[in-house]
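Section 3.1 - Work completed
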Amino acid sequence: MIDKNVFLAFFTTSVILALSPGPDNLFVMAQSARKGRMTGLFVTLGLATGLLGHTVAVAFGLAALLRASTIWFSILKFIGAAYLFFLAWQAFRAGVSTAAKEEVQAISKENLYRRGIIMNLTNPKVSLFFMAFLPQFADPRHGSMMLQFFQLGGIFIMATMLVFGVISFVAGGLGERFSNSAIAQKVVNRTAAAVFIGLAVKLALSER
């Protein structure tokens, strides 16, 4: 089991990291601003599921493959970059509508959830980050290292969902205020497209 002091230190650090501008929280912010709070929340659930996958990878040592293999790292990051470019293209081509609720309903909860999973799992730097970050808070004296990795991963996911939930609520609220303005919708869509492109380029150019 994880010591209470370690829990507090890790949870605080996780919240700070979740608040730091990065691909995932910017993604949630852009989606929430475009399509509302519920969109951001379902994307957040998908991202959290992706983090669970990275936790499993670290716990079983699979992340070592990404660290050792340049080919697999490159394949995964380019898949992620291509997906972000696709989302940017969708945002850029999005039409203007005063019926914001109808637009949100056009994207199913399953698709939003899946979008978050893909966004997170196709970023190999998350696995490498987990591999470097989690062991700093695990101690063999406190029992199974694998169990501690799962516990730490769960704490990180909890902190991420808390922070991203707030981001979804705030960004979604701002987006709803401008939902009946054609000009504002166009600005939000173009801004979201620019954010997605920026994230795609950053991911594509990233190194281990």
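Second construct:
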Amino acid sequence: MQYQKGDIRSNILKTARIEFLDKGYKDASMRTMAKNANVGLSNIYNYFKNKDEIFCEVMRPLTSSMDKMLNDHNDKHFISLDVFTSEVYLREMIDAFVGLIKTFKEELKLLLFLSHGSSLANFVNEYTDRHTTLGLEYIRLMKEKYPKINGNISVFFIHTMSSWWITIIGEIVTHDLLDQEIETFVAEYIEFGTAGWKRIMKA
């Protein structure tokens, strides 16, 4: 039976995902990936330059979803004081957070704790920096729309809150929580954070 190139590439990625999840980036074997995908080791290089490129492709659904969450952060929909009081906004934030974790729990473990040696090894720091930049912009946009709120919030505070967000995800995915326990915790975390931001911004 002859396979199409797209099918071979997809099959390599499926077997690579299993290998990465099982062993982490550093110890994952391209030879094992090739064997389990039923292709020659040299044939993998017809589809991917190296192990790192395979890893990035395996992680792309997760990293793209996290990028989307960042990009949505400052959407005009959320530049509103209603984010501090509306159950609708609260539900949207909970669903987005829980959805990311439920969909990518294993990939998140891999990205956050077992990606050393790959080009994604510094993802946490880079994501935190981007999150911080967007946080500063969010404060500016809110202050522009609502001049009476407090926009004088330290960069280090926003940076720490951004770092905390990633740390929270790491805590969730490394504990054996039921789906309902995850949702309960995320709701608690977001309500706690929302109340804190409302107070510090004097909204």
